[in-house]
From TrEMBL:
Stated name of the protein: TetR/AcrR family transcriptional regulator
Annotation: DNA-binding region: 34-53
Domain HTH tetR-type: 11-71
Species, as recorded: Sinomonas flava
Signal peptide residue numbers: none
Amino acid sequence: MSAQPRTARGTRTRARLLAAAEDVFASAGYHDASIVRITEQAGIGLGTFYLYFGGKQEIFDEVVDDLNARVRHAMTEAARAAEDRFDAEREGFRAFFRFTAQHPALYRIIRQAEFVSPGAQRRHYERIVRSYAHGLAAAQDAGEVRPLDPEIAAWALMGMGELIGMRYILWEAGGDGGTGGAPRDIPDHVLDELMALIQRGLAPDAPPSAATSREDVRHD
């Protein structure tokens, strides 16, 4: 269990170690990364590392959790001011794509976690789905979303966002999940197409018109 710092200076030191570890794991990969390399990049003594983390596995898990917390915060803050559920979807996805552009290491580190720390990878996705499903359930209760299983919908929508981000953010920037490639925003037409699919999939069925209802009565 990593130690939480007790001072502002300790908080800054721990944050520098996490930032350095994110870069090293993304560029070198878990197996070629080393604590020495992380501390050198952070400009922090090797002995200081062990005041905060027990070893390479522990700081890797913390990097996954830190990336997860930051991307969820970015999405939540972007969607907070939305006027309705579909505006929240658009702004939340836009924030996810922007975070991906600024932190392409997210993809490579989460892929590594499948083999290095499956529990951390599962925790990453489940935390996103839990928050997403809660928002969908609230929208369903408000009549903004058709009756559906919020958890299944959240997994499906998260998968769409992850692959769209990989195709139109990561690959277009020339990156492979490392630290290279210039950040870029999602193209407008891509976001528009994604939102059209989501809206058609989530929108409640339109109530029958008065004319249609009269026709039904006559046919009865």
